[in-house]
């Protein structure tokens, strides 16, 4: 068993002082900034009884906690178990997949609470947080988990933390432009989370291009049980995606509708993925890579429109198409991206998030442009698109235009941000591994000796060979 | 390592055109039918604000979404992770277990939304759906997942899709007869889901009897880690079963009571299962097959009665008995069914679903027959059994009789339906594998080479042996 | 592969009659006691319609079920999947970890419903249960799961059941003293669950000290995939901890606040754990033991104070400190406890539950003592600490004193109870394994032959070695 002769060959991957320093300094910064800025919102504050009277609420059940907490927990599972385990498919990178995802997400949600708080929940010098902020912080970190998928196995934990710092910042700016300046609807984040996150990650991995990556080719595959671990991630993402797309929609029908549309889209997506996975393989066998990933494209592709009156059959159509696009992407685009454009995309986020994210943005723009008072009802129409205040004269077609503009802005932010952050990550100070040590947990983790029987064989077979 | 010499020996398992064709045509049909029939129900429609006024609701929290969505997500997890991973216990059929379960359930929920919609949510030519429809679709598919357990490892994905198509149809008819014509209560589906699903699956596997199945005997067992994967399925089914049995009960006390009864029944079931698992084994050791399956019988066995005033101690009794019956079934009945009745039941669904389902139906009938206004309260009595309209004169003992009739109808539908569908599946056009290739993922899946160290040994040890 | 030559060497581990007897007798006792005592509470009883009128509730959504059921399910997952899988890290004790945890928890929740019911829900000779009782039963069992962590791999299932019986009893007494006599706040159980459970378990394992445990040293480690299984447990505990700490808090702001504080504390804890894990290892590599455990200390450490106005930055501070203390504990204290104090702590519960539990108790006392009407609002202040009735004159500083007293009482109960129960478990009648057979599933479980390829090698390599 050729264990890599990593550890300070060409590169210094020694983390002992660098990683602790970054973690501790940044956590200290979080504490200071939270101390200065973050306080409980009215619904989580002990003054709630007074607040309740002021808001004229008769029951504690009207607290936003009860509208959103179950969805929050589902989203939380998606970020930590969903993304974490989805990436355990590599045979020797399970610790890194789950563990680094854990690390970057735990840091990212803190920084996102601040960044998003300054933009959206800032009042009298304080950021007031409640369950909706927690969901949004998880969403923001979701875009980092997506980008992580592109560079999985090729970066040090410090690089991931640096990327998280910058990406969360840029995410918040982009989100502010879309939601507040363009007044765009994007509850499930097709644009803000998936399009932005994926193209950001793809740009970063392009900048970090490693010409000799085939040296670790043998570790880029899966083994039987690592594929099953990855299916845990897949299924939790798939099952809870209705919660993801509905988590921050308006109370009542909008949350309800988002969940139904997403449920339908995802169901359709599974069938077209299976169909194309079999069709595009000579022997007609199904490929776990497709099942693990492309089945989720349906959730991404209704991220913007799920809370609109997309209708169940509309969702089936969108889901069907996105499953096809995503599977085709794995078979044809990913090799092309690597060989021609030098974009090494470990998890294929271009297929699972980038293209379906674009579809999602476009479907959202069309659905918005096609909205009528007849379909939504007079009140429902205004509420669905928040056509109030300065936006009360906006028409559906104009809204559709702004939605489309949101896609373009997200793409530009992703390319520009990814290029800059990629450049920063390229500095030779972050401790990334040499090409032949990529996709190998042993570089940054204490790895136990293999299964006892294997360990036994590791020492033995060579000996009897020379009696 | 003797890899099977499958692939087109006696049988043609080539899926390349057949599987895509079935998936794509059926998904297209779903899109058309959804387009014609399926719309949002009032609580998911953008007209909800008007609806709210009409229904005299003061708050969005009264939307059915908030009563049922958390339970829906739990049920969703049970169908996809619960059933999917429960069946990963086989050493070389993990991809098929999780993947085919994913495929059939994703198709099944779409078809169930239509079938159940026509029977139960049809209004002015449209099927109006909300969160309760999603739960019911998942329930319906649950019965297919159960049947899948009997034929696990012996069928092609196309056969599973064909079975799903028919079984969902028959399920909906049976459910309509029970709930609407017999006016039977069965919120947790002891009869409609478990009894029907299990006897349907057992009949199908009987028709598909394979005399030479011992040729793949070596693959019918588990390995250490596959048993742990299966425990993920077991635990999620066990933990979320209170949500399963309460998901579509009436708002308020009925949902609350169902959850408590199920919690108690399942707890008791674990102890009797452990007791009999140890008692029935010569060396007194526990058998993972029992722990993985029989511990769940308690949830099945209170499926009908959980929302009734079964009482916590009643639940303990039912749970205790069902754990015993189920464990005894694994030790004595399963071998008997196979050798004498030629019923090859891969997962032992006869023990986990069929017998406990019957117990559940009977307990439900008795509990209904024993109901009194004293125990339920005057209003509670009418509400619990919906003794309104044409049923307002029905007495508990008559209700008990109808409940019992529901068991019989479910059995008859299962046997008749299973025989017909089994006959269809026996046609030699669906691409099932030869007996020696059963329980082997390699037939329908791209399977990665084994653990690197294993792969290494596979080639080496033989060589040094002959220096 | 040296399979242990266990089974009745020095010790008789034969379970065939003993385990079934204990399980069945105890389950029978549960049925009788439930029959005599346990009934549905008003919100789960069919008389709910009348109750609703009496309580002046206008909607079913006011049923406590809808306030707490989602949190209950999260807690349920933590107990069965969280604790169960967290302990699967051992290479050959996965069945015992998940299976025995399942067994003891299933028994424990029944006994806890009774014990806690007698103390807290007893009315007119009956224990009236609802969803809050289910949560509390799970909580109580949580303390047993913690203690199980200390003796993991060294005890028979009967010993675990005996320990559960006694520990649940003592837990309930201790909880009654703290909550009812001292009027202490401890919603997340830093004192009642973690401090008590951990020191109880540590005392038990001290009494059961095995001098020759190094005989099974080779089985005390993990393998690659067992570490990934353990991460499932870790992540579910980590993600759902906000539900744990908020599950039984007051409706409204208190639940909301608890969730936010816990979320913040846990996020910070991950960063300091990673920092110290790397810092304390010569090569700077991360250790999965720390990631699996110390990242959770932040949840334990805000267990008492989460529902108070700890504030988000306060939570970050507490989480940061507890991550450091816990990681340092794994590196320095655990070896010390074993070599000097003869405390063999398999899972390191001293680092994950004992020390963070103490921190949690102390932080709770300080936060309570520092409370002011200004911060909480007049009403909020009284509500948060329940300063009503005989307690209406209690001041924050006095409350802080009582909180501190709660820590001391919990410690004393744990030491005294642990010593007695340890003594009972030391009797040579319970069937525990010999030292060389510890941490080995084969003693109490039917274990499948290893991976087929391994099995193949097990028989072969020895042969070719001697040509």
UniProtKB/TrEMBL annotation, chains A, B, C:
<keyword id="KW-0325">Glycoprotein</keyword>
<keyword id="KW-1133">Transmembrane helix</keyword>
<dbReference type="InterPro" id="IPR002229">
    <property type="entry name" value="RhesusRHD"/>
</dbReference>
<dbReference type="Pfam" id="PF00909">
    <property type="entry name" value="Ammonium_transp"/>
</dbReference>
<dbReference type="GO" id="GO:0016324">
    <property type="term" value="C:apical plasma membrane"/>
</dbReference>
<keyword id="KW-1003">Cell membrane</keyword>
<feature type="transmembrane region" description="Helical">
    <location>
        <begin position="402"/>
        <end position="425"/>
    </location>
</feature>
<comment type="similarity">
    <text>Belongs to the ammonium transporter (TC 2.A.49) family. Rh subfamily.</text>
</comment>
<feature type="transmembrane region" description="Helical">
    <location>
        <begin position="93"/>
        <end position="114"/>
    </location>
</feature>
<feature type="transmembrane region" description="Helical">
    <location>
        <begin position="160"/>
        <end position="179"/>
    </location>
</feature>
<dbReference type="InterPro" id="IPR024041">
    <property type="entry name" value="NH4_transpt_AmtB-like_dom"/>
</dbReference>
<feature type="transmembrane region" description="Helical">
    <location>
        <begin position="191"/>
        <end position="209"/>
    </location>
</feature>
<dbReference type="GO" id="GO:0016323">
    <property type="term" value="C:basolateral plasma membrane"/>
</dbReference>
<comment type="subunit">
    <text>Homotrimer.</text>
</comment>
<feature type="transmembrane region" description="Helical">
    <location>
        <begin position="313"/>
        <end position="333"/>
    </location>
</feature>
<keyword id="KW-0813">Transport</keyword>
<feature type="transmembrane region" description="Helical">
    <location>
        <begin position="21"/>
        <end position="42"/>
    </location>
</feature>
<dbReference type="GO" id="GO:0008519">
    <property type="term" value="F:ammonium channel activity"/>
</dbReference>
<feature type="domain" description="Ammonium transporter AmtB-like">
    <location>
        <begin position="63"/>
        <end position="427"/>
    </location>
</feature>
<dbReference type="InterPro" id="IPR029020">
    <property type="entry name" value="Ammonium/urea_transptr"/>
</dbReference>
<feature type="transmembrane region" description="Helical">
    <location>
        <begin position="260"/>
        <end position="280"/>
    </location>
</feature>
<feature type="transmembrane region" description="Helical">
    <location>
        <begin position="221"/>
        <end position="240"/>
    </location>
</feature>
<feature type="transmembrane region" description="Helical">
    <location>
        <begin position="65"/>
        <end position="86"/>
    </location>
</feature>
<keyword id="KW-0812">Transmembrane</keyword>
<keyword id="KW-0472">Membrane</keyword>
<protein>
    <submittedName>
        <fullName>RHCG protein</fullName>
    </submittedName>
</protein>
<feature type="transmembrane region" description="Helical">
    <location>
        <begin position="134"/>
        <end position="153"/>
    </location>
</feature>
<dbReference type="GO" id="GO:0097272">
    <property type="term" value="P:ammonium homeostasis"/>
</dbReference>
<keyword id="KW-0924">Ammonia transport</keyword>
């Amino acid at each position: 068993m050729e264990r890599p002769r990593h550890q300070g060959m060409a590169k210094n991957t020694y983390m002992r002082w660098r990683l602790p320093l970054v973690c501790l300094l940044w956590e200290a910064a979080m504490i200071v900034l939270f101390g200065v800025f973050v306080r409980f919102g009215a619904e989580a504050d002990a003054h709630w009884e007074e607040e309740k009277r002021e808001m004229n609420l008769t029951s504690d059940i009207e607290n936003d906690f009860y509208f959103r907490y179950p969805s929050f927990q589902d989203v939380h599972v998606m970020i930590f178990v969903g993304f974490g385990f989805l990436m355990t498919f590599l045979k020797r990178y399970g610790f890194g997949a789950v563990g680094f995802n854990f690390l970057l997400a735990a840091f990212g949600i803190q920084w996102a609470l601040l960044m998003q708080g300054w933009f959206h929940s800032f009042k009298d010098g304080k950021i007031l947080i409640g369950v909706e902020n927690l969901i949004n912080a998880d969403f923001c970190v979701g875009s980092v988990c997506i980008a992580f998928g592109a560079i999985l196995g090729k970066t040090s934990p410090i690089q991931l933390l640096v990327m998280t710092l910058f990406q969360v910042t840029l995410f918040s700016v982009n989100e502010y432009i879309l939601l507040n300046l363009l007044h765009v609807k994007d509850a499930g984040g097709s644009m803000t989370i998936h399009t932005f996150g994926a193209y950001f990650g793809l740009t970063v991995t392009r900048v970090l291009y490693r010409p000799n990556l085939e040296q670790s080719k043998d570790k880029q595959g899966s083994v039987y049980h690592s594929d099953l671990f990855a299916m845990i991630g897949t299924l939790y993402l798939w099952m809870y995606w209705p919660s993801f797309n509905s988590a921050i929609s308006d109370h009542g029908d909008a949350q309800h509708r988002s969940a139904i549309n997403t449920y339908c889209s995802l169901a359709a997506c599974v069938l077209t993925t299976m169909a194309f996975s079999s069709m595009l393989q000579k022997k007609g066998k199904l490929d776990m890579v497709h099942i693990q990933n492309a089945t989720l494209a349906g959730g991404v592709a209704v991220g913007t429109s799920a809370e609109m009156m997309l209708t169940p059959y509309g969702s089936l159509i969108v889901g069907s198409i996105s499953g096809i696009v995503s599977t085709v992407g794995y078979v044809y685009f990913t090799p092309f991206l690597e060989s021609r454009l030098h974009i090494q995309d470990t998890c294929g986020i271009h297929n699972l998030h980038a293209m379906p994210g674009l579809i999602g943005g476009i479907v959202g723009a069309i659905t918005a442009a096609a909205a009528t008072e007849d379909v939504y009802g007079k009140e429902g129409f205004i509420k669905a698109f928040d056509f109030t205040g300065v936006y009360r004269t906006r028409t559906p077609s104009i809204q559709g235009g702004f939605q489309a503009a949101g896609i373009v802005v997200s793409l530009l932010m992703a390319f520009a941000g990814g290029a800059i952050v990629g450049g920063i990550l390229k500095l030779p100070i972050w401790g990334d591994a040499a090409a032949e040590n990529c996709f190998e947990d042993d570089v940054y983790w204490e790895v136990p000796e293999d299964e006892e029987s294997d360990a036994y064989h590791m020492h033995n077979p060579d000996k009897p060979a020379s009696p």
